[in-house]
């Protein structure tokens, strides 16, 4: 789309940012280990990783930062190996287990991608979930390494953690779609009905809403009432004007001036 006049670039840039943002919050590989649910996101390369430990702790790894939330609720954000050295032993343990899960997810992604490319049926293998949460979940903090000694307070069981849904990997529902339909004008309802249910939505101030649909499309609703529907890997964009007129544009075709 670089052949378009510069005044048309802004909406394409917003749409691209929305796609990348949603990919960074959409699990591609989900792996259940002994201690945690590990999720490798779709924003490859250098995909984000979210790990939700069964004891309530969480980690979130990006290409630049690592954020650790201990089961007590304390959170730390560090950058690089120097930052990791300043973490508590408990937080370092969560980071180490997360790195192990990250390596396993990358290996699984590579192996499954190879099989997907060899498949003649052209059926997507992702997203994929491997394993299930154990019936009895151990806290990693209760299984120290041989060289570690438990503090006396660690012998008593921790209080039940107050676990809140992760905003990083929030999954939508029929309720989400129904609520959205009630607020949408007819043209917006048509987009939802024709392309699939809403999986998740993200609001960006001064821009509008971006929603990922079950069909894989990204639906962008701008504050001026116009909309874009973008399908990853397809050089075609569906544009809906504020008046409700729907037009499909192929690569190098001009969008209206809105």
Automatic annotation (TrEMBL):
Highest taxon of the lineage = Eukaryota
All residue ranges annotated as the Cryptic POLO box 2 (CPB2) domain in the record: 26-140
Specify residue ranges for compositional bias: Polar residues.
136-150
Domain POLO box, residue spans: 198-258
Q: Which InterPro entries match?
A: Plk4-like_POLO_box_2_sf, POLO_box_dom, POLO_box_Plk4_1, POLO_box_Plk4_2, POLO_box_Plk4_C, Ser_Thr-PK_POLO_box_1_sf
Could you tell me which CDD domains the record lists for this protein?
A: POLO_box_Plk4_2 (cd13115), POLO_box_Plk4_3 (cd13116)
Listed name of the protein: Serine/threonine-protein kinase SAK
Arranged from A to Z, the UniProt key words for this protein are: ATP-binding, Kinase, Nucleotide-binding, Transferase, Ubl conjugation
Q: Which residues form the Cryptic POLO box 1 (CPB1) domain?
A: 1-25
Q: Which GO terms describe its molecular function?
A: ATP binding; kinase activity
| GO cellular component, as recorded | nucleus
PROSITE patterns, sorted: CPB1, CPB2, POLO_BOX
Q: Which organism is it from?
A: Nothobranchius rachovii (bluefin notho)
The annotated region (Disordered) lies at: 129-165
């Amino acid at each position: 789309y670089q052949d378009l006049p510069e005044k048309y670039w802004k909406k394409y840039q917003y749409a691209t940012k929305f796609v990348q943002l949603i990919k960074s919050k959409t699990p591609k590989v989900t792996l259940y280990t002994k201690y945690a649910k590990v999720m490798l996101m779709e924003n490859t390369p250098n995909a984000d990783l979210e790990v939700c430990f069964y004891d309530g702790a969480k980690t979130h790894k990006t290409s630049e930062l690592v954020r650790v939330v201990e089961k007590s609720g304390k959170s730390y954000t560090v950058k690089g190996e120097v930052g990791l050295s300043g973490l508590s032993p408990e937080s370092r343990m969560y980071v180490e287990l997360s790195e192990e899960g990250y390596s396993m997810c990358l290996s699984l992604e590579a192996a499954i991608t190879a099989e997907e490319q060899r498949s003649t049926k052209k059926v997507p293998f992702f997203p994929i979930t491997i394993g299930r949460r154990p019936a009895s979940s151990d806290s990693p903090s209760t299984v120290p390494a041989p060289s570690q000694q438990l503090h006396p307070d660690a012998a008593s069981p921790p209080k039940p953690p107050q676990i809140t849904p992760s905003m990083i990997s929030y999954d939508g529902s029929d309720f989400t779609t129904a609520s959205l339909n009630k607020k949408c004008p007819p043209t917006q309802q048509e987009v939802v009905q024709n392309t699939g249910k809403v999986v998740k939505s993200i609001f960006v101030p001064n821009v509008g809403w971006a929603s990922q649909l079950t069909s894989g499309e990204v639906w962008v609703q701008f504050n001026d009432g116009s909309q874009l529907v973008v399908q990853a890997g397809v050089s075609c964009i569906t544009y809906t004007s504020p008046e409700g007129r729907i037009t499909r544009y192929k690569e190098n075709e001009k969008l209206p001036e809105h």
